[in-house]
Amino acid sequence: MSEKYSTIHYHNYLELDALLSLQKERSKALGEAAHDETLFIIMHQVCELWFKQILTELDSVILLFREERVREDNMHTVLLRLRRVNSIIDLLIEQVKVMETMTPLDFLDFRDYLFPASGFQSWQFRMIETTLGLREEDRLTYHGKSYKIVFSEEQKARLTDIERGGSLFDLVARWLERTPFLRFRGFDFLSAYKEAVERMIARDQQHIRDSELSPKMKEMRLRVLGDTTTYFRHVLDREEHERMVAAGEARLSYDATIAALLINLYRDQPILNIPFQLLTELMVIDEGLTTWRYRHAQMVMRMIGNKIGTGGSSGHDYLARTAEQHKIFRDLHNISSLLIPRSALPDLPEELARGLGFHFRGDE
What we know:
It comes from Neolewinella marina. Pathway: Amino-acid degradation; L-tryptophan degradation via kynurenine pathway; L-kynurenine from L-tryptophan: step 1/2. This protein is mainly alpha-helical. It has a single domain (14-355), classed as Methane Monooxygenase Hydroxylase, Chain G, domain 1 (Up-down Bundle). 62% of the residues lie in helices and 1% in strands. It has helices spanning 10-13, 16-19, 26-29, 37-65, 72-94, 96-99, 104-108, 123-132, 153-165, 168-177, 189-210, 215-236, 238-246, 254-265, 270-304, 316-325, 330-334, 350-355, and strands at 183-184, 187-188. Helix 4 (37-65) runs antiparallel to helix 5 (72-94), helix 4 runs parallel beside helix 8 and helix 5 (72-94) runs parallel beside helix 15. The radius of gyration is 26 Å and the shape is globular.
């Protein structure tokens, strides 16, 4: 048998001797063994293994998106790998339950041995955030200093390379900007969409006026509808959108935002369905990481209350704030504010509709 297909034992293939020797309890080494420290170590090691797999998937997706023209036959691969990332995040959330089988007193048996170690020092997790597109200026600071301060010079350099090399957010934004269907042989999507929005709002205004609501209630609903109209106009105006980007109120460019809107509105067209699913998976990643941070924050509150974390952070307060602030694909979520009912969508020109579908011409 060739060396390529030589036999190997399960135990050796998984390097189990090395793997199972990596749980080194500090409490035991110092003569005061705490039963639950083994669980604490294994849980965090498992997290780091899953972080490694997430990075493997994200790196492969970024490689595909770096092509000048993302090939359609690669889009399904991208979608499947992002779904795998989301399945792993689901596991990370679920395994918090195992950690919560440890009581606060159990944790106190060995907590003092952990100083100054902290989950904040997880280099792989910071790589995941940076690879997805979380920018340094959008992060909560660590005692007023860069999040990189806890890492070695080599690790800092790797994080900086990711920031400069184009995150997944940046690459997806450029991909959206290249969407070819915004203008198509006399069909201007944005103009048609704006007209549809105006018709929809005018119809809603008339329904309110014709309703049996009290004058006060009509006035309130018309005012709310007016606010909606203003929001549509702000987001759909290029100059206003660029002002929002400059002010940090939006991040996606105007062209990328309009492309994401088109993909969401015409998601049922076969050619746009996988792009729609891809954008959805990115939002699910955001939601999953937010949930994971929040569950982590709740677990910390349960374990140590309002005590300072072992790494010197504010513990629960810091983690809860990251759950709210460290969102990456917020712009994609905001697209929902611009959606209109399918019944109000502008009709696509027949040729464009055929191009977005699976049309077989045969021997015409």
